[in-house]
Amino acid sequence: MSEDAKNPPAGCRGRGVCGHAETDVHACLSGLPTGRQVGKVVANTATTPPPYFKGEAGRFVLYRGDCLELMPLLPEASFDLIFADPPYFLSNGGITCQAGKMVSVNKGKWDRSMGFAGNYAFTTDWISRCRRLLKPNGTMFVSGTSHIIHIVGAVMDELGLKILNDITWVKPNPPPNLSCRYFTHAAETILWAGRDKKCRHKFNYPLMKRINGGKQMKSVWTDIETPRRDEKVFGKHPTQKPLSLLERIIAAASDEDDLILDPFSGSATTGIAAARMNRRSVGLEMETEFLELSKKRFEREYLEAGYSPLLDYERQANADTSKQKNAAGKVSSRLFSNT
Ligand SMILES: C[S@@+](CC[C@H](N)C(=O)[O-])C[C@H]1O[C@@H](n2cnc3c(N)ncnc32)[C@H](O)[C@@H]1O
Q1: Which atom of ligand 1 is least distant from the CA of 284?
Q2: 87 lines ligand 1 (CB under 6 A)
Q3: d(CA 189, CA 281)
Q4: Measured at the alpha carbon of residue 15, what is the angle toward residues 155 and 56, in degrees to the nearest 5?
Q5: Model confidence over 79-119: pLDDT tens digits?
Q6: 293, 73 Cβ separation under 8 angstroms
Q7: pLDDT of residue 89
Q8: SS3 of 141, please?
Q9: 63-72: per-residue pLDDT in tens?
Q10: 339 alpha carbon, distance to own chain's centre
């Protein structure tokens, strides 16, 4: 352990902020005392509100509220990775096919379009807040369809983020297009971006290559299924992402103990995948219904299901021989100097 890590500065309680090993994410972000130190440190409750839920000794934290208001309360440059699944602004009276029936697209009030200018302003507001929270080498992944993803890309560019990849997640079983006037919508895009142009982003290249049977992993993902039935036993979120998608993203762009934020947490798929992968997480969500669903999911899916097999795989990859590590190091420095 470095000298710095042995003597953390006052107020720092966790690795998420400045590299000191601790567990309680809320304490780390708010400068509050951790369980062991209660009574010795004066609490600073003016900054971060009390969490809605804390699990796994404070490594899994959910806050209730509008992410636009909550994010400015979190300390700058404290997150290694952000995953955001924002409103796609899809729920505008259109139709789709669900279980063989024609239904109107209505995910919730939060998913109604505010028109181009409103959607653009909202996207600028939340991405700029996310950017402030990223560490210098931190990255963010944002999912979306054509309704929003082009605005997301434009805003990222405008704010000076560095777009690293646009990933295509091919949906295995898309609903048919009822109007028969378009190609069947069968994919979502996930933009991956670094905090700024100088960002030396984390990419677990050897692990991705191993998962892909020894070949470089492409930016088109065809092996991620929609959420399994056992991911929805407590009810489902209308736009729930599969755990396997989040595990892939987390494994690709973070290390164990890293701190991950999801500003539109929904049913906490990101937090659960993070817990399985032994990362720490913070989720922000405004709907109590989804926070309750998140708690139930966390209690069962994480505590009962335990760690992901991907974590064992990751640990094996990290325990590679130094020869393999050196080879991987050369590849990543080539990638950085190429860009
Ligand atoms: C697309 S869903 C995310 C689903 C999530 N990825 C999952 O797997 O369950 C977006 C979520 O963001 C929430 N939301 C929308 N606007 C918000 C805001 N301004 N602040 C916090 N949460 C918001 C919605 O209630 C919804 O649950």
Answers
A1: 21
A2: yes
A3: 23
A4: 95
A5: 999 999 999 887 666 777 677 777 776 767 777 888 899 99
A6: no
A7: 85
A8: strand
A9: 999 999 999 9
A10: 24
Pocket test for ligand 1, best of 107, 110, 124, 245 (most atoms within 8 A of CB): 110
Per the CB < 8 A criterion, the answer to whether 111 and 89 are in contact is: yes
Q: How far apart are CA 151 and CA 101, in angstroms?
A: 31
Are 107 and 165 in contact by the 8 Å Cβ rule? The answer is no
222, 185 Cβ separation under 8 angstroms: no
Which phi and psi angles does 140 have, rounded to 5°?
-130, 145
Other Cβ atoms closer than 10 A to 93: 8
Within 10 angstroms of residue 243's Cβ, the number of other Cβ atoms is 22
Residue 217 confidence (pLDDT) above 80: yes
Hey, whose CA ends up nearest to atom 13 of ligand 1? 264
DSSP 8: P
Q: Rg of the chain's alpha carbons, rounded to an integer?
A: 20
Report CA(268)–ligand 1 centroid distance (Å). 9
Ligand 1 center from residue 112 Cα (angstroms): 12
pLDDT for res 38: 35
Q: Which atom of ligand 1 is nearest to the CA of 83?
A: 6
Which protein residue's CA is at the shortest distance from atom 4 of ligand 1? 266
Whether 237 lines ligand 1, by a CB cut-off of 6 Å, is: yes
Measured over the CA atoms of residue 283, residue 53, residue 74 and residue 287, the dihedral's sign is positive
Residue 116 near residue 59 (C-beta atoms within 8 A) = no
Asked if residue 193 lies in contact with residue 139, where contact means CB atoms within 8 angstroms, the answer is yes
CA angle 141, 69, 81 (to 5 degrees): 25
The answer to whether domain 50-338 has CATH 3.40.50.150 is yes
53 lines ligand 1 (CB under 6 A): no
Q: Tell me how far the alpha carbon of residue 72 lies from the centroid of ligand 1, in angstroms.
A: 18
State which ligand 1 atom lies nearest to the alpha carbon of 237.
Answer: 9
Give ranges for CATH 3.40.50.150 in the chain: 50-338
Does the beta carbon of 285 sit less than 6 angstroms from any atom of ligand 1? yes
